Amino acid sequence: MNGFPALASLPRLARHLLAAFLLVAASGYTLGVFFVDHTTHMHPDGIAERYRGTEAMGVDPMSLPPDHELQFEKTPAELLNITHTHMISLALVFLAVGGVFLLASGIPAWLRATLVLEPFLSIILTFGGMYLLRYHSPAWSLLIAASGTLMTLCFYSMAAVSLWQLLRPAKSPRPELFPGGEE
Predict the structure, then answer these.
(1) Which domain holds residue 14?
(2) Is residue 99 within 8 Å of 117, Cβ to Cβ?
């Protein structure tokens, strides 16, 4: 692709470095998915409750089961903290994972462009949606759920394809990463 080396043609050490990065990034991303599930139950009502608070959603805290954690409305400072840290860190994660994925071979151009660029739109929609949800209407939780789902599908698709191409057995000898040195 445009003069870049394919993942499968990279030297072994480079492939292992990228694979290790993708495995750790996928582990961290998966922990984030578990956290979202724990705090929202992966449901639009749970998302709305997370940012607007249990009582603001018309739920009587006394009627909740004992294992249900009360949610309190997010303050402007809490929203700023959540959104700025997540937007910066996710942008860097998707830059890195997308950069690795750009070296994957056999991917149609339209699919490659979609998987690499869509997460950036989803980051804006997901974290912008939190403000709309908190200050406008609980209905915006659907936008957050949809954009978060698309972002996650893109992440795992790019990571899985890249890992497959990085870790599959070599078909031909690869060049050394540092010519004249040990690989």
Answers:
(1) 7-61+71-167
(2) no
